[in-house]
C-alpha cells in the first residue's frame, strides 16, 4: 500500500490569507485540514471548491482545540505541517480598550497557537518530522497607534516561535512568517483601500509600490515548509514589500 499524502493543518484556513496558504499546501501535495471558527456554510463551500478538509474549532478555546486535534489525529493522522494563521484585530485607543478586547485578541492570536501546537506537537515529534509556521504581523515588531493588544499578541508570538524552535529541535522546525499589508477583504475594509486617496497613501510607504497579495505570503510559506529551508528554524521571514526593513 502506498503512503498517504502528507497532512497539513491551517487555522483560519478557509478565507483570507489562510485560504491562500491552504490552497498552496494542497497544490504542494498535502491533504489539508482547514480549521474555521464561525461560518459553517462558507467554510464547507470553500473546502469543497479547493479540496480542503474543513474542521470547526475556536482556537481561543482550549477544549475546542483539543477536540479538533483529537479528531484530526484519529481521522486523518499526524500533520507534517501546522500553520497557526487564525487572527483577529480589535483596534482601539489604549484608554478605550476593554478587558474583553484585550483577552479576545490575546486568546486568539497568541493562546490559539499555544493550544493547538501543544495538542499536535507530541505526534509530530513522535513521527520524527514536521514544521510549524506561525503567522505574525509587522505590528509585533514596529509599534503603531491603537494596536496595543494586537502588538502584544504578535510580539509574543514571535518570541513563542523562537523558544518553541529551541524545544522542538532538531525534529520539528518552527518559524514565524510575517506578512506586511496583504490584500484581504478584512484589510481593504479596515484601511479603506477601495478609496484611491487611501490606497495611494499606503502605496507611498511601500518600496515595492503595491499591496501584498495572498500569493506572496503563500510563496514564503512554500519556502518555509519545503526542503530549501531545512536548516532554518526560530526565524522570522518578513514579506512586506520593503515597508519596514528590520
Ligand atoms: P481574515 O480576517 O481575513 O481571516 C481571519 C481568519 O482567522 C478567518 O478564517 C477566521 O475564521 C479565523 N479566526 C479568527 N478567530 C478565530 C478563532 N477564534 N478560532 C478559529 N479561527 C479563527 O484575516 P487575514 O487573512 O487578513 O489574516 C490572517 C492572519 O494574518 C492573521 O493572523 C493576521 O493577524 C495576519 N496578518 C494579516 C495581515 C493582512 O494585511 N491581511 C497583515 C499582517 C498579519 P472565520 O472565518 O471562521 O471567522
Structure write-up:
The chain is 46% helix and 16% strand. With 246 residues, the protein is α/β, with parallel strands linked by helices. The protein has a single domain (7-182, 214-236), classed as Rossmann fold (3-Layer(aba) Sandwich). Strand 2, helix 2 (40-50) and strand 3 form a beta-alpha-beta unit. Helix 1 packs across helix 8 (214-225), helix 3 packs parallel to helix 4 (99-127) and helix 4 runs parallel beside helix 5 (148-168). The model has no long low-confidence stretch (mean pLDDT 97). The site of NADPH dihydro-nicotinamide-adenine-dinucleotide phosphate (NDP) has 29 residues, from helix 1, strand 2 and helix 6. Residues 11-12, 14-18, 35-39, 57-60, 85-88, 108, 135, 137, 179, 181-182, 184, 186-187 line the site of NADPH dihydro-nicotinamide-adenine-dinucleotide phosphate.
